[in-house]
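Feature request disguised as a bug report, sorry. It would help if multi-protein outputs had a clear separator. Right now it looks like this:
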Amino acid sequence: MDKPAVVVLFGGRSSEHSISSATAGGVLRAIDRDRYRVIPVGITREGAFVLEDDDPEKFVLDAARLPEVVDNGTRIRWPESAATRELTVVDGDGERSLGDIDAVFPILHGRFGEDGTIQGMLELFGIPYAGGGVLMSALGMDKHVAKSVLRSAGVPVVPWVAVTRADLARERDLWEQRIATLGLPLFVKPNRSGSSVGVSKVQSWDELGPALEIAFAEDAMALVEQAVLGRELECGVLPGRNGAPPRVSVAGEIVVTGRDFYDFEAKYLGAPGIDLVCPADLREGELAEMQRIAARAFEALGGEGLARVDFFFTGTEFFVNEVNTMPGFTPISMFPRCWIASGMTYPELLSELIDDALARA
């Protein structure tokens, strides 16, 4: 029997292009080649779909040279209609077939990939894919809407104010008063971005304006959040099997000792002052409550594919910070680490996500 053909799709037009490329390196290295035929497809920063090298070493995360998808002149041609799943590539020798594809694993982070756009394209082509669907992906990417949905579902979230440049231009005093009710310190972040890109910690009111400008450089809307004093915890969520409730991993903890917060350099470039601890030291009842809230948040946003749910824990209360519908997927990323600590291997986790996509077909 032929092995299912899986397109590993990565890169993209967002500011998280390099993180997606690094994630691809981990996936290409660990995916079970005995079970799947792998076709690596990269998206350049300009949005061209190219046939990439099946070489994990090419996409190692290096602080001196972040990995990226470079335009190599090839062009991927997606199926011409939902009646076929044949993928072709055009290069210097003309057009050739890559065969029929069975599923796509879109390990894209940020806009134009994690936000429902790629998912919508694949839906139009009738191609199964791993991860959340169009609506869940769009909800997860839009922090303001996601928090609104979670709050309406009874999930405790960090208090926030969402604001645009136009809001400030029309009624600056009103919006500054709303933000002031959150108190100091604050976090300011782009509404639709991840990997801590464009995030600032505001400890005095004169820092608010510059922080908003940094966020507006990434997105038209900025999210201003109350800073919650507490532990930073995360867990992974997968759908339940055969109608069972979602499965939630053990918790991991981000221990910040020498930085203001868990920023991009600490996440990906090995900057000091951060320790990732998994499993986190929680009492049995605390872990159970965190897992309950994580499952509720997952279901409230759609309950498909996978998610990493990020929390602040004050010692008495859990607050959901964000729900990430396509978290970092390198072997050292928190989502795989939490599942590995829960008894699943990294290759098994990849296979589960791909098999889930094939089953949904």
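(second protein starts here, but nothing in the output says so)
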Amino acid sequence: DAALGITGVVHQGPGSGAGDVAHLPVPDSTVVCPCGRSGCLEATASNTAMARTAVRRGIVPWADAFLVVDAAAAGDRRADRLLRERARAVGRATALLLDVLNPDLVVVTEHASLTNPEYLEEIRGAAVDHSHVCRDPERIVSPHAGTAVLPVAAGAVVLNPLFRSPLAASVR
């Protein structure tokens, strides 16, 4: 998923959805997606896709992305290599977003990069290599919430009206 903040307001498109990045094309990826196309971000770099690849490569016994992150943290070079591959795929997709939107900041919530800054550097490197507008990789960051980013993000969207206009929200 995606969220877009414009002048301090979280954009909520139709159905309160800001966007979906699952089917962004990942340059150089030929992985077939359930949607029928190949090279989609979801099919290439989602937790599910990465965990299945880890099982096929014998890195973990069952498809669990968190096991792959744990294996890399424990020193498994195969897990580390897979997480770096994933980070580069995320970085290539991030480059597309940078080129289309040219935002001041991109907050990446890819789990491995939340636990190990080396993976964030892989994302940044691939984004800069593939973007036409981004030459400042420091604008690609991990969220301050760390691994608690998803519940914090959900709460931020719900609380946004209160923070934007506290008096109007309290009257309702």
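Even a blank line would do. Unrelated, but nice: The chain has a mean pLDDT of 86.
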